[in-house]
Amino acid sequence: MSVGQKTASRPLLKNTQDFDPYYGQKNLAETCAACVSTLFSPAPLAAGSTVAAPGEKAAASPMQLSHFVAYILHRTRLPTSVPFTALYYLQQLKTLHPLATGSSCHRLFFAAYMIAAKFHCDDTYTLESWGIVSRAMFSHKEINQMERELCRYLNWGLNVEPDALAQFEAKVLKEHSPAKIVKKQSSLPLRTSRTSPTTDRFHLDRRRKTVSTTNCQNVTDTPDPICRSFVTF
User: Fold this and answer.
1) Rounded to whole angstroms, how far apart are CA atoms 86 and 76?
2) What distance in Å separates the CA atoms of residue 122 and residue 209, rounded to the nearest whole number?
3) How far apart are CA 87 and CA 207, in angstroms?
4) Which of 221, 222, 198, 194 is nearest to 209 (CA)?
5) Residue 84 neighbours by CB under 8 Å, 6+ apart
6) Measuring CA to CA, which of 97, 98, 187, 218 is 20 to 30 A from 232?
7) What distance in Å separates the CA atoms of residue 37 and residue 62, rounded to the nearest whole number?
8) Are 56 and 27 in contact (CB under 8 A)?
9) Which long-range contacts link 53-56 to residues 24+ away (Cβ below 8 Å)?
10) In this structure, are strands 206-208 and 123-125 parallel, antiparallel, or unpaired?
11) What are the residue ranges spanned by the domains of the chain?
12) Distance between CA 200 and CA 60 in Å, rounded?
């Protein structure tokens, strides 16, 4: 049998129309996106603008927020308590700063999700892995700065009581869920280790938690230039 025949005998690639941009996370992703968009009204991006730092490779425009959230959920595969804690942080941010608007809901959710993951899990992803999770939308410098910035705006009030989180989750699902989401018991309790590695094609490196915000409480309250567009008042 010739090489050509062997190649022809292989199954055809799936039509691109079969690709699921939500990676099976549509309901939760759309719920998160709707909640963030309701809390913050981001300034519209100019045509052709990007969200990456100068010199960083980026798409001409950011992807749809719900698709971005779905990819984060798919790549990290953390318990549902993590995205809802991220939304809880953003709700607290809006409560503390009612006039705040976000220049990018992508930035807001991503930063909150990183902090929530570190709150719930004893071991979390490295900076390089978070860059992969963000689909290279943000440089490593931006990722660190966004995390510090959000912690400062939250006055470092990152502890979330289980009862408060449960009530908040129910409220979010009632107000923002596009469809009824069957509530499942979280596979992990609060502040625990994630033991099931991702089975996605890229292995994301996880190490013992070293919160990049550890030495940042003394950082000046003046936002860094990159983060001035993170939250505006």
Assistant:
1) 14
2) 6
3) 24
4) 194
5) 165, 168, 169, 172
6) 218
7) 15
8) no
9) 53/138, 53/139, 53/141, 53/142, 53/226, 56/136, 56/138, 56/139
10) antiparallel
11) 22-40+62-180
12) 26
Burial of 209 (0-12, 13-18, 19+ CB in 10 A): middle
**Residue (of 103, 65, 142) closest to 229 by Cα position:** 103
Structure tokens at 165: 């989180």
Q: If residue 170 lies in a helix (H) or strand (E), which one and from where to where?
A: helix 162-176
pTM here is 0.70
Give the pLDDT of residue 106: 95
The architecture that CATH gives domain 22-40+62-180 is Orthogonal Bundle (1.10)
Taking only the tens of pLDDT, the chain with its 233 residues reads 544 444 444 444 455 567 899 999 999 999 999 999 999 975 444 433 344 443 444 444 578 999 999 999 999 999 999 999 999 999 999 999 998 877 789 999 999 999 999 999 988 789 999 999 999 999 999 999 999 999 999 999 999 999 999 999 999 999 999 865 445 434 445 554 443 334 343 445 555 444 443 333 333 343 433 344 456 54
Distance of alpha carbon 159 from alpha carbon 91, whole angstroms: 14
The SS3 assignment for 232 reads strand
